[in-house]
Amino acid sequence: MAFRATAFNDPKVVELLKNHFVCVGIAHNGAGRRKDAEGDFARKLIGKGGTLQGLHVINTAGDLIGYVYDFRPQSVTAMLDKALKKFQHVDAPPIDFTQKDKRFVMPQDGLVVVTIAKVLGGHDPVKSAKGTIQNDMENAWKTSLGREHLWVRKDEVQALVKGELPEGLKKRIVRYHLVDNTRGTPTGWAENDIRKLEMTLKGGRLVGSVHLETKDGSRGYEADLFGFVAAKDGKVARFDIVASGQFWGQGTYTPGAPKGRFPLAISFTLAEANDPLYNLIPDAVRCYADYLR
């Protein structure tokens, strides 16, 4: 999301970042739980800054020399200026990031599917004054898209090529991807939250319907699914599905949902291997140990 009044649209901040820093984006959620060099690196920062959210400045040894969780231009500029004055080159051996925690590695010969969620209505009007950062934030909050990746295992890919729809893949789609992630990391569905799951694939056409609801009824989703899954030359060549229905409630980290029931649509389509985000690990992999079950 890009907000007009935030630091990344400020000329001074952009100039500082372009000329004096190497900018790196880290998929932070769950990074500290990794049992590999990436996890060690993340824990080193978490121990000093408390979180991987926000903006960190580190030296060549990975030591934290600047941190801010305030994206107003003046706050970011002050932090960057202070970090520049504090920075000193430190010789440090390179870190071997080649060995990966297998839980966070995309399945070999698997499939990556992009999911996009969108709340189609129901939000209250934006109340803050136009031209303020609060107004930009509210507008973004109420119009943002939720992007995620669905991972498909090799054996499931082989089943799809044969025109079959594995039960494990159905449940993964339902439990971890039929969620409202438009405002943050969503809460997945427990097995007992699945009140109804009908999903069939025949002749390349997928149809289905679901009813998901927590025990206390505070959160749920009733939706129909429709799409096409096709194979060519022994590979999945098409995976286009849309889920559309009524959602209600919110998760622990997704506050600000519309009141009552609201329309939510979620699309699924094959990821492009040249997409810069192709290797991005699904949030659900970090949050749920049984994701690829």
Number of domains: 2
The total count of strands amounts to: 9
Structural class: alpha+beta
Form type: globular
Order of helices and strands: HHEEHEHEHHEEEEEH
Main sheet attributes: strand count, strand direction, barrel closure: 7 strands, antiparallel
- Name the poorly predicted regions: 1-5
**Share of helical residues:** 10-25%
Strand-residue proportion: 25-35%
Average pLDDT works out at 91
Explain this structure to me?
With 293 residues, the protein is an alpha+beta fold. The protein folds into 2 domains: 7-86, no CATH class; 106-287, no CATH class. It is 25% helix and 28% strand. The chain is built from 7 helices and 9 strands. The chain has helices at residues 11-20, 37-49, 73-86, 133-143, 154-161, 167-177, 283-287; strands at residues 55-58, 64-68, 111-119, 145-152, 194-202, 205-213, 220-232, 235-248, 261-270. It has a 7-stranded antiparallel β-sheet. It has a two-stranded antiparallel sheet with strand order 1-2. The longest helix has 14 residues, at 73-86. The radius of gyration is 21 Å and the shape is globular. The two termini are 32 Å apart.
